[in-house]
Amino acid sequence: MKTAPVTRIAVLASCFNRKAVTLRGLESLFRQRLPARVQVTVFLVDDASTDGTAAAVEERFPAVRLLRGDGSLWWVGAMRMAFGAAMAEGFDGYVWWNDDTQLTDDALLRLLGCAEEIAAGQGPAIIVGSTCDPETGARTYGGWVERRRWYRFALVPVDPDDQRPTAVDTMNGNLVLISAAVAKVCGNMESSFRHRLADHDYGLRAKKAGFPIIVAPGYLGTCRQNSSQGTWKDGALSVGRRWQDLMSPRGMNPREWFLYTRRHYGWLWPLYLVSPYVKTLAGVDMRERTH
Q1: pLDDT grade, residue 151 (50/70/90)?
Q2: What's the burial of 112, exposed, middle or buried (CB within 10 Å: 0-12/13-18/19+)?
């Protein structure tokens, strides 16, 4: 009797000073219902947490490959460390997962099933898992499509279809399955980014390289939307406070935003480059405007 080949999946995640959130997330990850042929290895980067996260993970989830940062990695640096360690070993697929995402018990199974379906017809792909708010059920993270006119470029969020996979142009990095073939061509996340933009950038680069970006049917987990209140988008704050946040890794650091707009925004990229800085100095409230 011919046996099904083993599928080796690496789950990549980062954590920093939110022990309870990380442990709840890992509980949902280790509850996944998967066939015996699927082997999952978790790579978790703790970026020098001071609340005992690393020790708690080692005690509760000893199977996790715990990597340690020096406190300066931010999200992209930590995910790059996890991704690099996993790619050095070689897996059939790589799952980006945020530790504040509570997965449904069949989330990984649905990601893998969608990946197999797309591979049969279109070849290797990136499969995106959508998340919703645990209270309202509204979409929070997932896939995005480009809306281009000669004078305008925008990314628009896409709700998942309940039954069918949906083609998109890029994604949030909260729950994403990247096939080995995609990772071989596109490599790791862009090292120039520290906390934002790297997930959108990766998807857009993969699409340009010819790989489909597909949203799996339905919602695969819950995750609250990060609030823009108290950030550079918040018009209720002083210009000085907004500018300070805008320049931080959480905002639109000029060096990173320059790379992103020049790479993806077409011939009008210089206008998009200056836009957040002009609007912030002008006091424009951007809390309802998401990227």
Answers
A1: low
A2: buried
